[in-house]
Amino acid sequence: MNSTASNGIVPNAQRLLWAGFMAILAAGVGFGVRGGILEKWGGEFGFNATQLGDINGAGFTSFCFGIIIGGIVADIVGYRVLIGAAFLFHLLSAVVTFMATKSAPDSAFTCLYWGTFIFGVANGTLEAVANPLVATLFPQNRTHYLNILHASWPAGLVLGGFIGWFLGDGLGWHWKSQLGLFLIPTVLYGLMFFGQTFPKSEASEKGLSLGQMFKDVGLLGAVVACFLLYLFFQQLFGQLIANPAVASGAAALLAGGLWLAVGYITQFSIGSWLLFILFVTHALVGAVELGTDGWIQNITGNILTPENGKILFVFTSMLMFLLRFCSHWIEKNLKISPVGILFVCAVLACIGLNLVSNVHSFGGALVALSVYALGKTFFWPTMLAVVSDRFPRTGAVAISIMGGIGMMSAGLIGSAGLGYAKDRFASAELRQVDENLYTEVKSSKPSRFLPSIFGEVFGFDGSKLDEAQKTKKDPASDEAAKARAAKILDASIAGDRKTLRADSLIPATMAVIYLLLLLYFKGIGGYRPVKIEEAH
User: In the beta sheet, which residues pair with residue 447?
Assistant: First the structure.
């Protein structure tokens, strides 16, 4: 197959690129709108931060099933079948989500959770198509075109933020009307993909079997994915089985069985240690980028005002959108390898999160979030490019598993962990100030996160927090009520600041890993893409 860096290997390469762009845009719009209506769900249904984190996280954890299963079967069933399945899942997710009603808050949680879960499956299935497709279409410049593909994500966040800002806050649209707008880009990507032909991956063209594509993943790579699957199954079975030990045992048995299955199809290949490290690092990427994205609008809106939170979210997402078109210029003109870009980004993300944790004004938040946005911009697509460059014989398998790992981590560790941290830090802050007031506003449902490591806490009841915010704004409220509301809101803000500082430890760890990888590649003569004939 012949190609130029800009035209791709087939005549319809650009149309397929922009169809993939539109597909991920639909995911970004849905995610962006959800970020803006989390607070409304908390107030309407009385959810605490951990419950909201669980709902938000469902879209991440379910993503892994779509992308991993889709990546494994992509060369068997074809991209067209996967796109059709994703389209139907997107429609079904809207139906299930819109079944949530205020009159039945318990079933509302179920509808919102599973609606978000199905939405994540659709998004994952689409990325199982888009990522390997673009990597195949533009083999000479993967970092650049994967960053363009994933510029659609922040573009979707911008549109989602504008929807919440103008239609929600400005015109008073109900959250269901806002969320339903993601169906517009859904219909568009369906039309753009319709009737198109798709190239096969290099590994598929060479006739490699599924077992051969899995060789580099091996037992080492599989253990990362299976550990996260264990956490997911433990959470799922915990809702179905009363005995925690039995639930954990069943989860371990299922995850262990999947790990042995990978061993069987690869003839128990150990796999590549480098790919193992990249998988672990991408779990951190998912936690800090997508996990934080799910909460940052809520957190900055709490520290400043909800309106400022939406404006800042739209601004930083727009900044990410524009920057993702610049990765080729950075590589070419600044002579920085993809791993070098990742190292710089990790340092900036760590600095940015610490700066955001200390903001007190809109201007300060604008600067701090710009640093954070610059840091997180290139993480996801550049990691995919590195795996595609270094492990060509894995076809769609490795980058699909990597995407699944990132999303599972975002849901199980990032989003849920930040929700738990907010509950833990805010409740501890209020208990120090006024124990009796904390007793009045604490949630009736406990907050849990990795229960074998972190203890159970009781965060704030979302409806009580919403009531405190209304009391603060209401001129008719008496001074005593306003003083009580101020204590609650101050504790909530203090909890948010501590949550962001704790979150900054993730990119700090990533920076160390990327630095070690830079030294490794320098020791072997520098970073470069590997041809499939060189892989062994």
Answer: 457
Instruction: Quote the CA–CA distance of 59 and 65 in Å, as a whole number.
Output: 11
Residue 404 neighbours by CB distance under 10 Å: 30
DSSP-derived 3-state class of residue 455: coil
**CATH 1.20.1250.20 spans which residues of the chain?**
13-217+272-431+494-523
Rounded to the nearest 10°, the torsion over CA 99, 101, 103, 106 is 80
One-letter amino acid for residue 437 of the chain: L
Task: Give me the tens of pLDDT residue by residue for the chain, a chain 536 residues long.
Answer: 444 445 667 788 888 999 999 999 998 898 888 877 877 887 778 777 777 878 877 877 788 788 888 877 776 777 888 888 999 999 999 999 988 887 777 788 889 899 999 998 999 899 888 888 888 888 777 888 888 888 888 888 888 878 877 887 778 788 888 888 999 999 999 899 888 887 776 666 666 667 777 888 999 999 999 999 898 888 778 877 878 889 889 999 999 999 999 999 888 999 999 999 999 999 999 888 877 776 777 788 778 887 788 788 788 888 888 888 887 777 777 788 889 999 999 999 999 999 999 988 899 989 999 999 899 888 988 998 899 888 888 777 888 888 889 888 887 888 778 888 888 998 999 999 888 888 888 888 888 777 767 788 888 887 788 788 888 887 778 888 888 888 988 898 888 899 999 999 999 999 999 999 999 999 998 888 787 666 55
C-beta separation of 86 from 430 below 8 A: no
- Residues facing 442 on adjacent strands: 460
- 354: part of which helix (H) or strand (E)? helix 338-356
Question: How many angstroms separate the CA atoms of 357 and 109, rounded?
Answer: 30
Task: Count CB-CB contacts under 10 A for residue 209.
Answer: 10
Question: Given the structure tokens 């590649």, which residue do they identify?
Answer: 521
Angle between helix 273-285 and 218-240 (nearest 10): 40
Adjacent-strand bridge partners of 8:
4
Look up residue 458 and give its two tokens.
């009781």
- The neighbour count for residue 199, using CB atoms within 10 Å, is 18
Q: Which CATH architecture has domain 13-217+272-431+494-523?
A: Up-down Bundle (1.20)
Distance CA 302, CA 402 (A): 33
């007031």: which residue's tokens? 437
CB count in 10 Å sphere of residue 348: 20
